[in-house]
Amino acid sequence: MVNRLRATTLALGLATAAVLAGCSDISPSDTAYRPNDPRYQEETQGDNSLFGSGGLVGLLGGGSKKDAPGAQGIGVNTFLWRASLDTVSFMPLTSADPFGGVIITDWYTPPETPNERFKLNVYILDRQLRADGIKATVFRQSHTPDGRWVDATVDPKTAADLENAILTRARQLRVNTAQQSS
């Protein structure tokens, strides 16, 4: 038992010495901050902001005029993003990712038809305001007499109509923004 304790103590001592020896190459001059050192100038030049060049406002959709209209702050076209949120605002949201351009709603039961419910997935695919920059998927379920929800077919025209409604709203937002800035 005593030999085992001595061996463990010796091993810990050697491990500690090895770790401390590994740190001995670092001199204080290597870790001191020197603002005129070219190695550090690249890191410190620029906007010095946690949120990027536009600050928090730029992150949320403001930003420089050099960006394409509707492409500031988020990973997708801001007009399509806002139009998508406006269009599906009557449904409860499960997830909304402005950087990936994905909006997922929870199931919604229209008051007019309590035996069916709908769910939407909206994908914004581009930073440009284009018709092929958006894709909507509609899911529908029907309520059976035994109380279960079962998947039901959805007319493909429903998704196309939703995409067209989003595009129409996005164009309205772009026109309104252009009128306000002029």
From TrEMBL:
Arranged from A to Z, the UniProt key words for this protein are:
Signal
Q: Which Pfam families match?
A: DUF3576
Region spans: Disordered: 30-49
According to the record, the signal peptide region is 1-21
Write down the InterPro entries for this protein, in alphabetical order. DUF3576
User: This chain belongs to which protein, by name?
Assistant: DUF3576 domain-containing protein
Source organism of this protein record: Aliidongia dinghuensis
